[in-house]
Structures are given as C-alpha cells and as structure tokens.
C-alpha cells in the first residue's frame, strides 16, 4: 500500500492510484473486522500514508484520480475510500488530523460536482459528510463555508446534489446556538452567521449562473428573507452597477410579486448601459420572461402603464422586444410597441409644423425613440448575440410596420420607393438590418416576406416589401442564390397575389431567377398552365415576357428615354452583381411558343400580349378578318364585348416598327429602311388597313345616322364598334405621322386628312345619337378613347406646327405642311389636353425631358409667345389656347408631384422659354419658379382679363375663364390673399406662435367686425378691406382651428407624462395659449350671430374650441385619480378661462348657433337641400356633442375636486346640466309624496259623459 511516484507515466500512475485505494480500503476494513485491537503494522503503514499525503502535490494527484474515477465508476470507489478514510483517521492518532479531515470534506463536495453518480454513493457520501461536519470546530466550519463561496465565485455550473449538500451544511450551521462564530470581527450565532454569509455571497458573486444557484441554495435552506433583504437594499443604491443589475434580473423569479414589481420599475427607470452591456442583461431577462408568467405580466403591465419609458429609454424598449419574443405575450407586446411607434410617427410630422407644440410638450422629444431604434438596429447588425435574445421580434415588428394600413400614397423615385416615407422607411430599415445579421441561408426570412406580401391589404404595402426584396437581392446576392428553394415555393402561388404585385415581385427577383435554371424551368412550366386561366393570365403573361426579355441579349438604352420602372435592375447593376446578360435561346424559344398559343385566347389576353414583338403581331394582323361590326363585336342580351382590340394591335405594331427602325440606326422616323423585310411587311400590313379605312365611309360600315344606337343588342354593338373605329382612326394618324413620309409626300398627308374626316363624320353621328338617348334608360357611356396616343407623338406634331422643328434631313413640303396644319392641329390639341390629364396611365412613364418639352410647347401656344412660327392665325380667344393652357397646368402639376427632387430643372426650362430678359434667363431653383409664377399671374393673367373685357360673347368668355383658371392652377395660387394667409399661418406655427402672431389675428378680427358694422377703420391691415372681409374672416378662422388642433395634439402627447410637474407646466402653457384663442373666437362670433356669414366655419371653430377644452378637462379627470391636482396652477388657469371668455362665448352661441332658418334654403333645389341637410346634421351634431361633453366633464371635475370655481352654469340654458341617470332615493321620495297627495285629495263626483246627438 504505497502512493505512485511522479516518474511514472499517466497510465501507470492511474493504475497505481487505483491499487493504492483498493489496498487502503482492504487494510482498513480488515483491521475493523478484527475488533478493537489495532495491528501495529497497519498503524505504521497508515501513519506513513497520512504523512505522505500532507504533501500538496500528492494530495492533488490523488484528488484528481478520485474525481476522474468517480466519472467512470459513478462514485463507487470514492464512496468506499472516503468511509475508510474517516475510519482510519478515527482509529489512528494522526498529527494533522484536521487537515486530512477538511481535505476529504472538500473532496466530497468536489466529487458531488461530477455529472453522473449512482444513488447509493450519493446517499452514503451525503450522510458521511453530515456526520463528519458535525464534529468540526467553528473555525473549520467557517472555512468550509468560505470554500462554498469560492466555488460560487468560479461561476461554473453546479448540480443539484451539490446545492443540496451545501444547503444541509448551512442548515447545520444555523442550528448551532453558540456565539463563537466571527463575522467582521463580531461574535454571532450560527443562524446569524448563515444569514450574513449568504448576504456576503450575494454581494460577492457576479456570474449569473452562480446567482441562480445561490438563490436555489437559499430557498432550500429556508432563508428567503436573505433574498428579500438583498433586493430591498439594492433598490436603495444611488448608482446602479452592471453586476447588480444582472443579480436583480436573475432574482426576479425568486421574490414576491409586489417586490418583483418594484424591481421591474427600478430597472426600467435606472438601467442606462451601452447596448453591448445590455446583451447579457436582456438574455437573462428573456429567460425569466419565458419561464415565469408573473414576471412577464409584471413587465408588460409596467411598460403599458408608463409608455413614455418606451419612447425615451433603450432598456424598456428592449424589454418589450424580449416580450415579443415570448409565446405568451408575443401578440400583445407586438401590438403595444407598434402602437407606440405608429403614434410617435403620426405626431412627429405634426410637431415639426409647430414650434409652440414643441415648447408646450417640454421634455418629450420625438426623436429619441428613432435614435434608440437606430442604435438597436446597428447593434443587432454587429453583434450576433442579439439573435437569441430578440429572436424574430424585430422581424415581426418590421413586417408589421410595413403592412400597416395607411392611406399614404407610395412615392416611386428612380425605380425605388422614396426613402422619406416615414413609418414604412423604419420598417424597411429594420428588415434590411435583420438580413444583414443573417450569416447563412436567408430562406426563412424570404419566406416570411413572401407570406406578408400575400396577406397585405393594399398594394402600396406590398411595394414597400418588394422594395426590401430589391435591397436584399442587391446586397446579399449569393445568400439569396443559396436560398433559391424558397423562391421555388413562391412560383406555385405567384399568380394568386393581388393586382400586379406578382409581376413586380418576379421583376425584383429576376437577377436570381435567371441564374437558376431550376427556377426558370419551374416558372415556364407553371405559367404554361396559368396563361390558359382567365383569372391568372394577367399575371402569367407579363412574367413570361419578363423571362423572355431576360433570355435575350440586352442592348444599351439611353437613360433619359424612359423613367425607370419600379423594382427593375439596369444592365450596369446586373453586371456589378455578377449576373450574366447574355441570352438563353432554349428558354426564349419555349416562351415564344407559349405566347404564340395565347393569340387564340380572349381579347383581354391578346391585349396584354400586344406589347410583345413585331413578328408575332404582324403575323396575327394578317390573319384578322375585314373590319366590320359582326367580325369585331359580339352583342348579347346581357353583354357587349369586343372580339379583337384592333387599335391596340395596330399601335403595338407601329411602335415596334419604329423601334426596329431606330435599332437599324436610321436617323429619322420619317424614312423607312425597306431593306428590313420584317419592317416592310409590317408597314405594308398597316397600309392595307389605311386603304380600307379611306375606302369605307360610315355608310359602308353601317354606322350612319340611320343605324340603331339604342340600348338594344344591335344598338350597343354599333356603339361599341363606333368607339373602336374612333380609336382606330387615332392610331392610324399616329402611325402615318411617324412612318408615312407625310412631311414630304402630299399623298401621305392627304391620307391623314382623309382619316381625320372619317373620324369627324363618325363623331358627329355619335354626338347626335347620344344626345337623343334618355339618360335614365341608357346610362352614361364613356366616349373617351381606350388607346393613348404617345406623348412623343404629340410633342413631335406640336413642335412641327408651332416651331417648325423637324429632323435635319427632312425638307418639309409647304403644301404638305398646310394640309397637315389645317387638318391635324385641332386633333393634336384635343389629344394634348387628354394626354396631360392621363400622364399617370402611361406604362412605361414618359421621361422628365419629354414631359417638360410637352409643357413648354403648350405654354408657348397658350401664351401666344412671340417664338411661335405660326402664331399669326391664332388668337387668344381660340379654343386651342385654352386647351394648351389646360394641358400646361395639368402637366406642371404632374411634374411637381412626380419629380419632387428634379422639378426645378423642368421649371427652369419653362421659365427660359417665355423669358425675354437676358438678365433673368439664367436664374435657377426656386427663383425660376417665382419668376414663372410672376409671369403667369402678373403678365399673362392681366392680358387675359383685358381681352376678356373686349369680347362679351358667351363662348369667348368661357374660353377666357378656363384660361385664367388654368393659369392660376399652374401657378399653384388659387387666390393670392388666401395663399398669403396660409403662408403666414404656416410660418407662425413653425415658430413659437408668440404675441406678434396672436396680435395679428386679434387685429384682423377687430378690423373685420368694424368693417361689418360700417365703422370708419384706420387702415391697419391693407389686405382686410371691404371686398375681402369674408375671405379674411375665413382665413382667421382657419388659423384658429389649426391652433386648436395643436392644443389637442399637445394634450394627446402629454397624456403619458415623464413627471407630474412637467404635466402641470404643459397644461398651464396650453391654457394660456387657449385663452388668447378664445378671445379671438369671442370677437369673431358676431360674424355668425349678427351677420349670418360663414356659419359652417364659425360652427367648426366653436367645435374646435370645445373639443380642445374638453381634452384638457378629461386629462385632469384622469390625473386626479392618481395624484391630488387641487393645488395645480393649471386648475386655476382652467377655472379662470371657463368663467371668462368661454362662458361669454357659450351664452352668445347657445341661443343662436345650430338654428336653421327656412328662408335660407328656399332657393335651393331638392338635391342640394338634401345634401346641405346632411352636411348641417354632421356639423351641428358634432358641435352640440362637443359643447355638452365639455360642460358635463367640467362639472364632473368640479365634483371630484370640490372646486366651486369650475361650477359653470349658462343662464337660461340646460345644455351640459342634463343627467339621465336614475337616482333611486329621489325616485322613492317623489313617489311617496305623490301617494300622500292622492290620500289628501277628496274624490270628485264623476259626471256621466254626454251622449252625442
């Protein structure tokens, strides 16, 4: 029985250790079986052994062997060895007995950390440990307790058996009553020492796992008061440290609900660490939220109750996101955080409009939450540890924001959604950050996006999601390629998406699809079936055309020819992404065969296809029957349909013909290259139709004045056929202008004039026939052409007629020009007006250069500028000038709304076209805009008015009126004075609404009333005069209503205050501002009461006043349930305002506002009377409701506070005092009184009724 030496190998040493332990146990057991007699040899060997094991190295080696052996034999050998160890120590007098005793006890605790132990060794070792522990001295007990603390400080995971052993030890310590324990140089009993020791453990231990183990240890000891004391003392710290925060989060599940709520409130208000330090805290909190429903409910209730914490601090926002990542509170937490963000963004734009709102709100900063979210996004992108904490919370939040129902129109700019789109931009930013945080496959994220696209209520939200897909495809091309199986699942449902969402989504994913032959094959196979279904063909055909386009070699296209379509990738972008732009012949041939079969389908399907290619369309054009009503229109009892959209087909052939000419680098569209046989064949096919149209008049086509145009089957067929012919004439004129050599060939020019004469004849017939039809029976029939003439065509014709601009190679024939000018000018101006009103209907959208040129030509013609080449035969009262000004106004509005950032370039071009002063010709930006407005209002508008006075004919007056209106619409100035007031109100609300603004409104109000009274007024405001009195009153009312809206916004925002003092200050500022506004309302009230003007507007103003005051009263009613508001300065301000100006307004308005006079509506028609009655009903019901709510809530506040100053009563009026609740006591008293009266009254003799004669 000897210990191994250090010179042996590890294997040999292990065997020697095992032999030693076995021999030692055998010797001790043999000696124990011999009775009380000790063998001298055994004593000598055991003493020598204990002497050797006093060496630290030998003991460490033996301990390591025993721990490793316990892992393999589940503690069997160590259980036997430890029992014999303590037996030998008891039998033999060892010099350092305490040393060997303490070492073995520590070793037992170490062995209890072994992962797998059998039950028998555990029970045996546990009882042995307790037995030996009871023999220890106080100092050794304290030493063993400190060993427990050392184990906890290491931060390693400890099994339950170790915790049970430690708890038993501490329980034994607590049973010792002697005050021999020492803690911080003071004597204490065992229970006191255990209490202090565990508190010290909580203070010293840092690791979260050790804190959790320590909490379990304390609970098993039955000393939970230690946890409560530690937590209570921690809540009193002045500065919260990171380690203490972790401890409190871990202990949330171990403390009572009331204390847990205090801890949660403390953490939500005090935690202010960096996001990197918040990762472990949030991870622990997320674990607690998952495991403990009480903690989840507590955190959620606090965050919901104090919503300002979410908008101003990072940690509460993270807590709510952690709740979103739990199954129990996923939906509620997601709704809560979404509501806060939506409300925040909803109010943020309004707050930017008013500096006074920002001042009144105080510390509540709307930008804080945005900054916090941005910090979280950046941290999630950089630190992968957030993925386990937040999980899909940010993803669900971003998808929820992107699919939010909103009436905002999606702005498309340069092929992408405008980034300045508020709430949706935030959702997009979140989702892209989540994609950036993914290390591997993006399939799961793409599946969620595709699922959201299929569920969105509006196509606008779908566009935002698709815009995110575009960014993901551009930034993570390889990862999306690896996730192509998700796109494979999308193929099966792509045609079930709403509107053109499916086509747009495929366009966004096209760079990925064309690189995966599996996806291309799947799409072609699936679309082959979908093109045969009426409900899916509108999606399937464009998708096939997209694949066909991607399967052909891309050619370079000028960037200014067309506006970029949404979710498209340019050739340069595809090249930078590593996507090949070479063609795939096999795919193109298969798609072509599918598209060829669609020519035998319905007209709607073929209409989609007519934007395809020249060869197919030309072949199909030749197969069509001759033009007749029976061949192209089918009419039944219930419906009338067009069998073949011939005008669309011819326009498509014409456009593709011109593109083919340009592709062959022919400089002019007026000359056709006959070497291109396909182009020549298409031109010849269209020429046959031109010849047919010129050869057949309306009599030959059986649609003359003798034809039937009634609502019968034949009449509806004739009407449908006539509309098709009108569109056919238009597209044939367009085609001949481009490819018919009409500027040099007199015969070609005569063809255009002949076609226009055919159209004029048919239009006259339709005008006469439709005028005779009864509107009630026939209904309204649209006479507008379903085909849109290209903007470039209109620009080309107008440029030729107005400025004599042609291609440099063309020598224009004067005779041709005269023929075209006399026949086409009216036609092109009609189309100019139609094109300007339907610019949004073009696909693709015309470029900004083309639209600007279109507006410039209309401006020159509308103003009869001296730059016109043929302006001598046109006069200002000509209808062409009116049409030109209408087109100019509509086009300018389109440019301003469509090209927000590039609109100034167009405005500069328009200004230079009419500028005669070289000094001002080069101005840019807003200066050019101002000069153009000054030209339209200051120069051209007076010119219209002067000419208007010279010509009193009704038709000419109408032309001048339309021109003036269009001029004002183009200038965006309906009434100059009104716009000045709007600018003034806007500027004042952007500022702080100081006394100058209030003084201006007050001065204008007083001057308005003086003018109405007929008093002599010293001109203080030149804009407020006799002619503009009503308009000025309307503008002052608008300003006051906008300011009352600001008051309600402030009350809405401060309803969740940071502190009660801030709330009181904000309400006081609001009431001070409202006091000034009430004075203005009191001054303006006679406009309604005495002069019966602006009744609707004054009623709206009073409604705004009462609604604003009611919102303040309701807020105070809510706050008085929480705190005592009797001494608040805002209550005093409310009482003064209620008894001051507002009371006088109520006394004057109650008897007058809302009453209708029958004489006011005597001259109105029945329909207008009905519409006005509905409007008045809504208006006055809202007014009365706001009035009653204000006074009723004011009386409730008066009763709640016991403040008689708020008891406001209006003389001779019961509004606001009526109470429909039943008081049982009063009812009983009244009934008893009625019974007494009945008993006291004597019964009267009844007289028999008189008989009728």
TrEMBL record:
* One Pfam family of this chain: FANCI_HD2
Positions of the region Disordered? 1231-1253
Q: Which organism is it from?
A: Syphacia muris
Q: Which residues form the FANCI helical domain?
A: 559-611, 624-767
Q: Which domain of life is it from?
A: Eukaryota
Listed Acidic residues bias regions: 1236-1245
- Name the chain's protein: FANCI_HD2 domain-containing protein
Lineage, broadest ranks = Eukaryota, Metazoa, Ecdysozoa, Nematoda, Chromadorea
Q: Which GO terms describe its molecular function?
A: DNA polymerase binding
**Biological process GO terms, please?**
DNA repair
